């Protein structure tokens, strides 16, 4: 247990990153106040302030490990509540380039809870911390700081339901976890600091989700069926068992090829996927809700780590720093790892240095960002610089996936990286590379499954914009 280093820490934003941050802060501050615009306590449904909660959100293998480090025993609690857990390489049925990968249990456990249920269980743990307070239905107006802007001293908030004006919540540390819509870059400029640089890649993803109760079983011994979008067919899906005996389907399209939200159009879109068993299951299933669509235009990384100066006692975490491509389900896991990094710094007995912490956050983000940005650039319509290294990685990745259709050890190696357990450099180990090349030499790469859709989809995949 860390010794208390200061009086009050304020967390702006009560979503999953805010909860992780509060858990990291609680041992080191006498009081932790978590501020959010929504009602949070006891909520087990999707929230208006977090529309992405209606869609599949996942904790990857390393994220699950971090979750258990932050909240020991929470895995069993969620399992007792009916949350299934899958093995990323063993009980997830992956399709790459239209072909199914071999499977093997590799100890890569993933949480298959719906986002509201995951938040509910994490929130209950945070609520149980005696020094944590929730300020619900409050808008964050801005920061308060010393006259010279060198130190943040609190947050300015407005309580929606009390008819009062703006008030200042004094703090010894303020942590922004308000997500992609964070106004931290604007606040820093107002305090006299430089503009935060941003890196973006336009991917123009649209994903639509629905929950079902099945009348037939397409899973067998698997927990999830995931056909991955490819340049030939820029459509994919995650179809998974989840809490409450339901299944959750999120299907997506890249570069403007978005799924329709009417039932017939949605089902026709699903029918084009590389895993025909998904469509066969849902046409006979009982829908439990309406189809919800979410659009994601660009990935984004705000480079707080590149600032030459920053105010003391102010940190930024989670989607407020980086929103990677949601298809790869990295965001929650990165947030959990950032919370562990924050906790480790606090255990040294003093408040984190803002620039040093943001640089550590960047070091957590960088491998995942570089890996997924490289994958995104494999789609010809995605704009960006394709270095020789990027092009070679595209060739090697295709060979690796092809090898994984024949040998499960390649699946396990790839999923350890995709699950953030191993760094991307692990795929360059000589033994693995030689194994992939040997497999490729013995058998040339097979073509992916033929398109299961109209020819226009193929034209979009080669970079044309939909009309």
UniProtKB/TrEMBL annotation:
Disordered: region residues: 444-467
InterPro entries: FAD/NAD-bd_sf
Gene3D superfamilies: FAD/NAD(P)-binding domain
Domain of life: Bacteria
SUPFAM superfamilies, per the entry: FAD/NAD(P)-binding domain (SSF51905)
Annotated protein name in UniProt: FAD-binding monooxygenase
